[in-house]
Amino acid sequence: MEFLRIGEKGHETPVVHAGDKHYDISSIGDIDGKFWAEGPARVAAALESGSLPVIDVAGQRIGAPIAAAGSVICIGQNYAEHAAESGDNPPESPIIFFKTPNTVTGPYDAVGIPPQAQKFDWEVELCVVIGKQVEYLTNTDDALDAIAGYMVANDLSERDYQQTYSGGQWAKGKCVKDSMPVGPVLVTADAIDPHNLNLSSRVNGEPRQGSNTSDMIFPVEEIVYHLSQFMQLEPGDIISTGTPKGVALSGKFPFLAPGDVSEVEVEGLGAQKQEYFQVTVPAGAGAVTAMDRLKGDK
User: Fold this and answer.
1) 235: number of Cβ within 10 Å
2) Tens digit of pLDDT for each residue in 235-267?
């Protein structure tokens, strides 16, 4: 099945796409953590009985296909060539970092570049949505069974914050508001082979990344299995599985600037498109931003 959510941000309507029609499933519930216990089966039964109302999605804003994300867990340098362009050796164990829930936004929403950002970067990624509570898994088959579905993510990163001001962690460069566009759709795990999907990205129409999930160092089941040894995964948690080479950090391309447009796509899961604008700090006599202070301390 293919799910999406449409409407004003924070007030989206959950929808299932079946055949050539879209159906409102709000009577069953929003696509949040609780949905995965019985939601897909109830949607399938309602489609079979013809009890779901048809909804017109034309001209509607498409939001993130999952509501109220719990943890947003990301895997760093999961493609060997991306690790190399970052100046590192391929990791021997998954590199884990987190993004805050307010980084999650719709696939076509405009994204603000922070006031003093110097190195805002794109990253196309395959994203996993967890469908059941798991911890201490003993095998990768159970890890695959814990996956509810997949979607496209753009793990936007501010590299200057990530590296210069990191303090040894990546979070400062990864938690900019709206820096995790996901969607447009969430496709259930039974309809997707996550091991052989093409990924690509473009900036202002020019190719940037191009790879396949078969090049992952750690495939999705190993990631979920590994994470379960260190944390309890909950339904609705998002896991972004890493990006291939071709980002601005490589030095081969300019970083994103206001007015730029990025596009990221994963085979079978659709494409998203963001335009970037400059976030400004209100002017004021003697106003000094936190970043000014930090730069003055260096």
Assistant:
1) 20
2) 999 999 999 999 999 999 999 999 999 999 999
